[in-house]
């Protein structure tokens, strides 16, 4: 297979995901409404309860909705990544997965292309959220809108890879409600999305360690810093490392020799 | 002549349950081979292994001499598959579904367009190309899946219970079309079914029951081998169950 064949295959996967996305307007709307509810209702309610001191990357006191906006961007990607990756193993989607896996191109390439497509789909969602958030005083510098793009892509890849790895490794994880309870909510709440970690540290050191070890915290911080034209090196390293790790696990999970498909059977 | 599909000593288990036990048969180019078995016979496991969804534990499967485990890319390139479960994207158009398949095979845009055109014409789907698959009947969806499986011009076609849920006319269309492909293109076909009337005297059949091959040969050979007077009776003798 030539390099051009690889490129055509990857573009084919990207365009299919994009077409599906265009056809699923309700998914787009619900993916957007969720963080907006948090921004508009939750942040308004809590803005006077939770005081935020000056912490990097911010250089001044900021209202609470400004603080949680990056966390909500990461939330969009968390849901999007889990939804698109886990949907691949549900029965109704299994057929689509099989179509993908009978391609003569290597499986790692197919899965990576699929993840890339999922991450790209989350980008217009994130920008749509930022556009609405602007009316709620979330006004990062103009260049921040551009600088956040690679951070969004990388964190989208990481969360998609996590979903794919989970879908292939954990047998019981077969409905979205279970994923919400055991993955999405713990990851979201044990992170810096809703409250700065110094506050968590005041509450308890153990929880602070959990938050620090949570790759989602680093996705949030990577996005937060990028949005304000700064780079958080530690977060970048953690997110990049986690992406590679989760992707490797996912590829292993879909390996025809040892993965979930071989254990479960794929058709009888 | 290298067989299109050669299965040798194939066994596979899920935990304690043995799904396939020492399965052996081959399909030659131009052969229309019917894999006949009741539900749970092991047909879908055989398809999953042959399409490299997961590895077989023992034995081998080769496609035109390429072992599916070790040379999966050339093997998959020569293979077209119609799965038992629907695998089309309902929200995409017929043409978009077909283009996606071409992309997965790394085909250039010009060639893809040309092949899509040819298969749509041949399967009488040209006027529905822009329709979303959701709007098509079950029979037409199956035709789209068949068109898709043929786009990269495979030499071996695997169909897993392709007529399930179809009316008589759609079943007839599909069967006639695939038989014609065998004759015209020298295509090797493995057609899995539990319906005896999808075989004819020219077809070769493999009777699979509880994971084991109970008989293999042309219809007259299988009938003669069991001293029965019809394929139905032969099947009953071989499996102890009515088809």
Number of strands of chain A: 0
Residues in helices of chain A, as a percent range: over 70%
The proportion of strand residues of chain B reads: 25-35%
Terminus-to-terminus distance of chain B: 34 Å
Biggest β-sheet: strands ordered side by side in the sheet of chain B? 6-7-8-3-9-10
The pLDDT mean of chain B sits at 89
Number of strands of chain B: 10
List keywords for this structure.
heterodimer, A: about 270 residues, mainly alpha, B: about 240 residues, alpha/beta, Rossmann fold, 2 domains, six-stranded mixed beta sheet, four-stranded antiparallel beta sheet, 8 helices
Word description of this protein:
The complex is a heterodimer of chains A (268) and B (243). Chain A has one domain. Chain A is built from 12 helices and no strands. Chain A has helices at residues 3-23, 25-46, 64-86, 91-101, 107-133, 142-169, 176-189, 197-203, 205-213, 215-227, 233-253, 260-264. In chain A, helix 1 crosses helix 5 (107-133), helix 6 packs antiparallel against helix 10 (215-227) and helix 6 runs parallel beside helix 11 (233-253). The longest helix of chain A is centred in the middle third of the chain and has 28 residues, at 142-169. Chain A is globular and about 55 Å long. Chain A starts with a helix and ends with a helix. Chain B has 2 domains: 1-78 and 155-243, Rossmann fold (3-Layer(aba) Sandwich); 88-153, no CATH class. Chain B starts with a strand and ends with a helix. The relative contact order of chain B is 0.18.
